[in-house]
Design goal:
With 215 residues, the protein is an alpha+beta fold. Helices cover 45% and strands 11% of the residues.
Length: 215
């Protein structure tokens, strides 16, 4: 089982020599601002799209703190970029929360509930780590608790959690939050220098992918 790194212990490292206000792909240094995955991971978006994967865990305070900056960034992305959310699967509550993510998606309430789940856990102190509490939470979004329980126990949802775990392994992710661009470039708080810098680094990598595809 993977063990999550304490990314924020090293996130205070300055992004040396990098003017984030004028960041471009030419400024990026591999191993300093981002990491390249040892093996590219197949993307799961339509042809021509650039995939940005956000790996997260609902129980992670750093993932929660990233939400405001990353959501604002998503609103600025071009039509050629598709965002994929990847719930981390590292056992225990991590897997339970991954089930919660895919169950909400299957019920058609994910878009509305996603941010609220973070809020419930980190601002209201609700753990949402068992079927009963999750089903009760989902009932606020127009589904019955019975429907929620069925979704949480569905084979298709469990299969998606297994697929998420396999994808994490293929990306060799050891912690969250993380942004993965085009199945090749990994951005963490440590490499970016802070949570707030992550979208800006990833944005420059998106531009690099565009340039690579034009060549």
């Amino acid at each position: 089982m993977f063990k999550p790194f304490r990314f924020l212990q090293s996130a205070v490292i300055a992004v040396a020599g990098l003017g984030l206000a004028t960041l471009s792909s030419a400024n990026l240094v591999e191993g300093q601002h981002y990491e390249r995955l040892p093996e590219p991971v197949e993307t799961r978006v339509e042809e021509g799209q650039i995939e940005v994967t956000e790996a997260f865990w609902y129980g992670c305070p750093h993932c929660y703190n990233l939400q405001n900056s990353v959501k604002a960034w998503y609103d600025t992305l071009g039509d050629d970029v598709s965002v994929v959310h990847l719930p981390a699967t590292m056992g225990g509550d991590w897997n339970t929360h991954a089930v919660k993510f895919y169950a909400a998606e299957s019920l058609g309430i994910l878009e509305e509930a996603h941010a609220d789940i973070f809020t419930a856990i980190h601002e209201e102190g609700r753990r949402l780590n068992d079927t009963g509490s999750i089903a009760a939470f989902f009932s606020d979004y127009g589904v019955s608790e019975e429907e929620a329980r069925q979704a949480l126990d569905a084979f298709a949802v469990k299969a998606q959690v297994n697929q998420a775990h396999a994808r994490m392994r293929s990306m060799r992710l050891m912690g969250v939050p993380a942004l993965i661009v085009d199945g090749r470039y990994l951005v963490t708080p440590s490499t970016a220098g802070s949570l707030e810098n992550m979208p800006q680094i990833a944005d420059a990598l998106i531009e690099r992918v565009r340039q690579e595809r034009e060549d």
